[in-house]
Amino acid sequence: MHQSGCVPSLVALLVFASAVPSWPKESKESSQAHGRTKVCVAVVANRTATSLFVERMTERLTKSLIQNKLAAVAMDSATTDDRELHPTLANGEELKRLECDYLVLTQITNPNAHSTDPRVPSGPMGRKLPSTDASDPMGGQSGPVYRDDLEIDFALFRPGEFEAMKKATILAQPSANVSDSLVQTMDQVANRVRHELKKK
After folding, report:
1. 25: Cβ contacts below 8 Å, ≥ 6 apart
2. Rounded to two decimals, what is the model's pTM?
3. At the fourth CATH level, which superfamily is domain 13-112+147-198?
């Protein structure tokens, strides 16, 4: 028997809270004092119709956080497919096992997925732009190809908390190789996360 979508999510959040208590204050302060704040990176979720190498994106985000002087680790559990970013039960269990100070969730979405007229060209902020790359395999002799900008939504959580301490969206304009474009955008996500943690 199927229940409404909000009930399982609520149950998962309640279990997440019980499974992931806040870590002892002394432990967190000690790790941060030595510049070793530990960040768990959930597998990037792809909510677009385009095939993307989410494992590469997750790896790039993790490595970029490490370059930003953080102790980052890629998780086996994935970011939720729900539109609203929140920790899942699997995230919670892995956070507890890895003893991370923070959790990063990342989603790739297409803001124009439900557009009724995909032919309309437009500019920045999630709108379509013509491809001017002559080597673009989507081009050819039929004229410019209009590509959708994609949104990279990410959120930073503390263990045991459902309210994100930071949420943001980065707009990416895909090139001929969409996956490569988005892999590079992971560096921007890492910089935003690092900036937020420097304020703590």
Report:
1. none
2. 0.68
3. TolB, N-terminal domain (3.40.50.10070)
Helix axes 178-198, 54-67, angle to 10 degrees: 40
Burial 107-140 (b: 16+ CB within 10 A, else e): bbbbebeeeeeeeeeeeeebbbbebeeeeeeebe
d(CA 196, CA 185) in angstroms, rounded, equals 17
CA dihedral 28, 29, 33, 38 (to 10 degrees): 10
Residue with tokens 């437009």: 122
**Mean pLDDT value across residues 84-107:** 96
User: Which sequence spans correspond to the domains of the chain?
Assistant: 13-112+147-198
Q: Tell me the average pLDDT across 118-128.
A: 39
Report the distance separating Cα 69 and Cα 49, nearest Å: 34
The per-residue pLDDT of the chain, averaged, comes to: 75
Instruction: Name the residue with tokens 């993307």.
Output: 52
Question: Which positions ≥6 away from 53 have C-beta within 8 Å?
Answer: 179, 183
